C-alpha cells in the first residue's frame, strides 16, 4: 500500500466523528460523482469490508448513475462493477 494511502486509512478513516462505514459510503459517492473510475475498484472493496452490503452498494451506484445531469462516462461504472470480485 502506498504511504499516503496508508496514512489516510490509518488516520482520517479511524477518526471517531464518523464511522468508517459512513466514510466509505461518502467516498464511493464522491468517486462516482467525480467519475474517478481508477479508484472505484479499491473503494468498492473497502466499502464492502466496512460493512456495506452488496445490495446497498448497488443502490448507491444506481442512484448516482441515474442522475438527470449528463455524465457521459458513466457507462464505465458498469464495467468497474462487473470487475469487482465480490460482486461478479
Please give a structural write-up:
By secondary structure, the chain is mainly alpha-helical. The chain has one domain. It is built from 5 helices and no strands. The longest helix has 15 residues.
What percentage of amino acids are in beta strands?
A: under 5%
Number of helical segments with 4 or more residues: 5
Shape: globular
Overall SS class:
mainly alpha
- Distance between termini? 24 Å
Q: Helix and strand succession?
A: HHHHH
Layout: helices, strands, pairs:
Layout: H1 3-10, H2 20-34, H3 40-49, H4 54-65, H5 75-83
Helix pairs in contact: 2-3, 2-4
Search tags:
61% helix, 88 residues, globular, mainly alpha
Write a brief structural summary.
The protein is mainly alpha-helical.
